[in-house]
Every structure is written in C-alpha cells, then in structure tokens.
Design brief:
The complex is a heterodimer. Helices cover 34% and strands 28% of the residues of chain A. Chain A contains 12 helices and 15 strands. Chain A is elongated. The two termini of chain A are 30 Å apart. Chain B is of the alpha/beta class. Chain B has a single domain, classed as 3-Layer(aba) Sandwich (Rossmann fold), CATH 3.40.50. Chain B contains 8 helices and 12 strands. In chain B, strands 6-5-4-7-8-3-9-10-11-12 form a 10-stranded mixed β-sheet, sandwiched between helices. Chain B has a two-stranded antiparallel sheet with strand order 1-2. The longest helix of chain B has 17 residues. Chain B is globular and about 50 Å long. The chains are: A alpha/beta, B alpha/beta. Chains A and B meet through helix 3 and helix 6 of A and helix 5 and helix 7 of B.
C-alpha cells in the first residue's frame, strides 16, 4: 500500500492506495486542494519511494518553492529519489516537435527513459496542460501503463472544468482505480471545502464526502458542528464531556440542587484524523427558542434520550420531529442502559417515531467507548451524505 | 444591492453605478488608454477592496499604478503571474500572491479564493476594515495574455467560473481584452460571459469609448482623456 499522506483518508480507503493503482485528484477551480497531491508526494518520498514528477505548467524551482510554502517544510532530502519533467522540458519538446504526433512520442520516450533510469515507483502528473496539449485520450495514455512501468503507481491532479460529467465517465470506463474529487459547497455551511471519494476499484464502498481544512500544511478532515440534543436530564452534558478532549457546559444549579444546562455544552476532539466540534443544547422546553440557533449549520445530530424514563418520550418525539426537518444525518442514543427500568429499542423507536434507517444505540454516557461508538456511527453517516 | 461607482459622472448619474455581480469586458486596441481606463474602474472606493490579476506587470508596479490614481494600497491585493518566473522563491503575503506564469489557472483560482476569503473574514491586509459584506472589484489584466498561454476553450471555462464567482460574491469584474489581437469568434465567445462591454477606439490620437449593455445609456462614442486616474469626457 502507498499512503495518501492523509491518514483519515487512508483509513477510509482501507489502509491507503494499493501499489500499481492509477489515482485521480480532481480539483474544482478555485478550491484549495493542491495539498492532496503534495501530501501524497511527501509521504512517498519520506517512505523512500523513487518518484517522477511531471509539472508542465511550472519550473522545478518554482514548484519546489510553492510546495515548501504550502506544506510548511521543504521536500524530504532525497534528491536522488526524485526526477522532474517541467515546463522547460515541455517547451523543448514543443519546439522540436512542431505540429503532429512527434511531441507525444517525445513525451512518451522521456517518461519511459526517466522511469527506467531511476527505477521510478510513483509517478505524479499535473494533467491540466497535458490534457490541453494532447486531448483527453492521448493525454491519459501518456500517464498510463503505455509509458510507465507496470508496477508503478500513478497519481494525477487535474483542474476539472467538466466536473461530475468527466468523473462519472472515468468511473464507468474504469480509467482510474481511485477518484477523489475536491470541491466546495455553500450548504449546509456558509462555505466549506470537501472531498469525495467518488470511486475505488478495490472496494464497493459508497461515495463518501468529508469537509476538510488546510491546517499547518496538512489536510484535516473536519466536522465543524455536531449537535447533541434531547430532553432534560437525558445526559447531554455528560455525553459531550466524555466525547471531547476539552468540553465545557453553561449550567445553573436550581433551588433543589439539580444542575441544568441553561445555554449550551461545547467541546471539541481530534479523532481518527478528524477535527470535530460538538454543541449540546439545553433540554428544557423554555429554551426551545435557542434550538434553531444552535442547530443552524449542523452537519449531524445526536438525539439523546433517557432509556429508563417513559415520560421523556413525548419531548423526545418533539425534538426528533424538529431535527428530521433539517435533512442531516441523525443518530439516537438511548442513555442509562446500566440503570433499572430500561426500555427496549422497540419501545423507544415506537415512542419517538424513529424510522428504521436511523440507528438507535443503547449506551451509558458514563462509558467513553459507548459515546465513541455513537460518534463513529454519526461520522460515518456524515461522510456518506451527499452535499 | 450594492452599486459600484465608475467615477465617470455621466455613467454614475444615469445608472447610479453598476450593479453588484456585473462583469465588464473592456475591449480596446493596443496603444489606447485601456489600462488607465481599467485602473480608473478598478480603483477601490472608500470601504471597497480590489483584487488585480496581473499578467503584464509585477505586483509592485501594480501598486504604484494604483497609488497614482489615488487608491489606498491597503485595500488592494495583487495576484502576480510575472514575478515568480524570475524569482521562484518569492513568497505570498496577505496582499501579494504569486503564480509561476499565466498558464497556472489552478494557482490563479486558488489565490483568488484565498484573497476573497481573507477579505470576508477580516484578515486581509492586517485586518483593514471596509464595508461588510465587502464590495470587491476584480480586474484581469489581461485576458489577452491569458489567451496567449491557454487555449480559448479552456480559458472560456476558466472565465466562466470566475465570472460566476464574482456574481456569487456580488463583486464587480473588469476584464481587459485587446480588440485587434483576436478573431471575431474569440471576442464573441468572451463577450458571452459578460454583462457589459466597454469598447475603446483611437482616432487621430484621440480616445473614444462606448458602452453596450447598460439600460438608459446609448451606445454612442464618447471622446475621453485620463486625468489623475479619472476618466474625463471631452465636451
């Protein structure tokens, strides 16, 4: 396997990219996705792989400067392990070839020679200019087994103006073993970048989309807002506190000594290479005017209910009806499984009106593992959501 | 909806300024006042921001030009597609961003998005504060140079994306194209992406412009000069 250099993505791919694969990073114009290819390049060099980098749009010096700036550090010092074909080579080829097929032959010959002379294992190609010079089929043929060694892995970045139409045709024709599309969206957040695993030849997993941030020269998958809601005393604050590395709650102690959340719970965690922020709502109906504000732009919701308290079910049903209108992934966590008087999953589903497609977990919010199971399920649903 | 003033009283009085989301093609022959005209249109008014994509001049020269037309340089960002080819190690700053050459449409698109994001989140140019939502003028100087490096079909797609983005952020786009260097098809294809076209011609050393696509303004030729960065109509 070859790592993408982004461990969250490696996990989703089942450990990375199988050797000998052909990979496409498709960039929507204007989306900050150059670090995907660069992360894979750094990782390959750090693992001692011999690499050929084809950069027809720029010079080697400018490329090295750009990627060092993007990544926040220069390329690993493995000079002997990396060779380039750059814009200077492109100009030479064009000058010598004039019009006709000579340029294509020259590119092929140069790629083959460099691969042979340097035992190249991974080829990184910026496809944009090659596509323009030779068209789709001939361009792709230059970055295929026709020119590259049979065991080599080929990674291609392309500025994709044709969007899904092109990617769908690649997927149907099986032109690539892995297609990752990097895009932006304005919903459900005001503006965010995300990547979608469009196709993998080695698994049948569904498309997955994950928002990401560029942080300290790295791609960080993130979920900016998961909301935990539920009736009073269902255990929301405990859930947020146990789910996150650093959580806090705005609570007030009542006359009877009971503590209730009067504003919200808040916490964040870095988990499985994801940055996740959790917001907990107050449970009392008198705080309902705050719910739309806290739920706004949420990418997923955990509905927490006390599995020992029948009287909470109408309130839980009300909240469930509110959040289903948001059309975001929902997970129901039935808390206090370790206490007597536990309702069955059936009773909870019927009492709240939960449909079969929404998972219900019987948990104890005191148990971190239970809490993480709920989050794992929700994150999984969020990554399968189509924006 | 925000209106972008042109600084040309005869236009501003009739239209009240160009609507947010307008994309304007400045079609002009060589050796005309096209560039100065573009700077006059692109200059940020108080509270506005400007982004210039320069394929002909270095960032420092662009800023000098803006200074001469009386713009506050702190509200001007430049995407420079010249400097990096001779100085590969040059680094981006908040206001100056660099791509290797005009072929790098990936880089241009990303730098533009970065600059817009910084303007929106208030971190542009050390956090200078203008209006919110920020009115942004964006000038491509020039489409002609981009066309020398990339095929028309590709550039059309790229400009399609950029003009759509300008609409989305309610900006004002100005695109300079040499009217003598390209064939009819090229010009008409680029025109399709625009809301307004300003055409410039030179006759016996005098410059004239006309506007097409603005309701209330006829397409008559107007003689003009440029004085201290202002377009002045000769009466």
């Amino acid at each position: 396997m070859i790592s993408t250099g982004m461990y969250g993505i490696d996990d989703m791919l089942g450990g990375g990219i199988p050797k000998g694969s052909r990979v496409l990073y498709s960039l929507e114009p204007g989306v900050d996705g150059q670090l995907f290819m660069i992360s894979t390049l750094y990782e390959a060099l750090e693992k001692g792989k011999s690499c050929l980098v084809i950069i027809p749009h720029t010079t080697v010096d400018a490329f090295l400067s750009d990627i060092a700036q993007l990544r926040g550090k220069p390329l690993p010092s493995t000079e002997k392990k990396i060779v380039f074909l750059d814009s200077v080579d492109r100009e030479r080829i064009q000058r010598r070839a004039g019009k006709g097929g000579a340029a294509e032959q020259d590119w092929k010959a140069r790629i083959k020679k460099l691969c042979t002379d340097h035992n190249v294992e991974v080829i990184f190609g910026y496809f944009d200019m090659i596509y323009e010079d030779f068209g789709l089929e001939k361009g792709l043929s230059l970055l295929s087994r026709n020119c590259c060694p049979p065991e080599s892995t080929i990674i291609i970045e392309h500025l994709n103006f044709e969007q899904d139409k092109l990617l769908d045709s690649f997927a149907v024709r099986k032109s690539f073993d892995l297609i990752i599309a990097i895009k932006s969206s304005f919903s459900p957040l005001p503006h965010f970048n995300y990547f979608t695993i469009v196709y993998t030849s080695w698994s049948t997993q569904l498309r997955r989309s994950v928002p990401f941030l560029v942080k300290n020269g790295r791609i960080v998958p993130y979920i900016p807002k998961i909301v935990v809601t539920g009736p009073p005393e269902s255990g929301k604050s405990r859930f947020v506190a146990n789910a996150t590395e650093l959580g806090m709650s705005v609570d007030r102690t009542g006359l009877g000594g009971d503590v209730t959340t009067v504003a919200m719970d808040f916490g964040w965690l870095h988990w499985q290479d994801f940055d996740i922020t959790l917001y907990g709502t107050p449970g009392q109906p008198r705080f309902d005017p705050m719910l739309p504000v806290i739920l706004h732009n949420a990418m997923g919701v955990v509905l927490l209910v006390d599995a020992t308290n029948h009287e909470q079910l109408p309130r839980a049903r009300h909240l469930f009806n509110t959040i289903t209108k948001m059309h975001v992934p929902i997970v129901v966590a039935a808390n206090k499984k370790d206490l007597p008087g536990l309702m069955s999953e059936e009773e909870i589903r019927n009492g709240i009106g939960i449909t079969k497609d929404i998972p219900v977990f019987l948990i104890s919010a005191q148990q971190k593992d239970d809490v993480r199971d709920v989050l794992e399920s929700l994150v999984d649903s969020i990554t399968r959501f189509i924006y | 909806m925000y209106s972008y003033k042109t600084g040309i009283p005869q236009i501003d009085q009739v239209t009240g300024g160009f609507d947010a989301g307008t994309n304007l093609l400045l079609l002009a022959p060589s050796l005309s006042y096209a560039e100065q005209f573009a700077y006059a249109l692109t200059k940020p008014m108080p509270g506005e921001y400007t982004i210039m994509l320069s394929t002909n001049e270095r960032a420092s020269e662009v800023i000098d030009q803006f200074k001469t037309v009386g713009a506050d340089k702190h509200f001007v960002g430049v995407i420079d597609a010249i400097t990096k080819s001779s100085t590969p190690s040059v680094s981006d700053t908040e206001r100056f961003m660099f791509v290797t050459n005009p072929t790098d449409l990936t880089g241009i698109g990303i730098k533009f998005s970065h600059m817009v994001e910084m303007i929106f989140d208030g971190t542009f140019s050390g956090g200078v504060s203008g209006l919110f939502p920020p009115p942004i003028r964006f000038c491509v100087n020039s489409v002609s140079t981009l066309l020398m490096y990339r095929k028309l079909e590709v550039l059309y797609q790229f400009l399609h994306v950029m003009t759509a983005k300008l609409k989305k952020i309610e900006g004002f786009g100005i695109y300079i194209l040499n009217s003598e260097a390209f064939d009819e098809r090229t010009i008409s294809l680029i025109k399709q992406l625009m809301t307004i076209v300003i055409e410039i011609k030179v006759e016996r050393s005098d410059n004239y412009f006309r506007i097409m696509g603005v309701r209330g303004i006829n397409a008559d030729w107007h003689k003009f000069t440029i004085n201290k960065g202002q377009v002045v109509l000769a009466l």
